[in-house]
Amino acid sequence: MLNDRQELAVTTDSLTAIAAINEFIMRSLRYGRDAEQVILQAIAADPTCAIAQAYAAAYYLSQESAIARRQAVPFLQQAQRYQQQATEREQLYIRAIVAWSKGAISEAIEYHHNIAQRFPQDLVSVQQGQYHYFYRGDKAGLLQIAETVLSANPDHADLLGMVAFALEQCHRLDEAEAIGRYATHLDRHNPWAHHAVAHVMETQERAEDGIAWMESLADTWESCNSMLYTHNWWHVALFYLKQNEPQTVLSLYDQRVWGQARKASPKDQVGAIALLLRLDLKGIDTGNRWHQLLPHLRPRLHEHSLPFQDLHYIYAIARAEQSDAVNEMLSSIISHAQTLEPSAHKRWMDVAIPAARGMVAHAKQDWLGAIAYLKPTLPQLWAIGGSHAQRQVFQQIYYHAQLQHEQSGRSVQHHQPALPANVPAFA
Ligand SMILES: [Fe+2]
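Above are the sequence and the fe (ii) ion SMILES. Below is the predicted complex in structure-token form.
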């Protein structure tokens, strides 16, 4: 038994394994590169270390792709195989990851809360709990789980970054900025705290401040994984968009966002789509960039990891004029929704599916269809997760459709939106 860098007992006697676990913890909390290789080193050093196996599984699950979900399976099996000899905390963590792998997110969250109350140094677990809250659109939970462990870690820069982001999502903007800045003051290599402050500035439309803040810290993102590297630059691009500098935005897209993306990564793809979409809404010519994304989106058609992501993929596919693929994905989403437990089923049926139809309609310039499908979903869109800034694009699409329609001088009343073939209207 050895202690990790969080002073928590880990069931291993391998110094090599614990060193790699410590590195993994640090990279996880800082969104560092190559976390996968590091945790695989720990497992190679001690395959019986159950929590290392669970960390690897969690890494793959967080990729939110079908391939990565399959990659997680053997690690989960090994984690469960050695679970009995593990500590109570490790067992709780393993159960949380197993629950996640089964789509039992509420159960996973309960385990992370349990860990937070009893082992408040375990910030990897807190971060994981926040991840689930984030994609459920539960901003109160996002804050609560981080605050649970705050008194035990009052000056932990990484935890303060988590708290700052949660406060921003709860619209406690002044506190979020103060804590995010303090976290950065404690440790400048804190990309999640930078990101939290950027969100405050985005919400307050302080584009100039946002550019200055983010660009003054961007050198530290070189060690980030592609998800946060591209996402932080995505925020910078949004500030430049606000400043009406589309050429800078396009250049950031090419060099920092899609340019530095792992092309097969769902989250990196979503960021690229979200930026192109915003450029579209401003009427800026994006050239053939939609078509360039297309080959990378094909594996996404039947995954349905997160509704928030699906709305992006289907827009991109529709925007690239791939009607067959759009219909295939819509049908697949509907089939997927039938397999889910009641609350997830409702979220997909009431929000994600009509919103997906609205996205398709907008991409096809069917303004009335976009209005008709998106309008009832807007008050409920929080339920598909993502940040306020990320979800804002759905409102922008709705208002853009409305504006386009008004300019055409027709009424939106009594419109029956056009449906893609083979897709039941109210499935
Ligand atoms: Fe963000």
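The beta strands are 2-3, 9-10.
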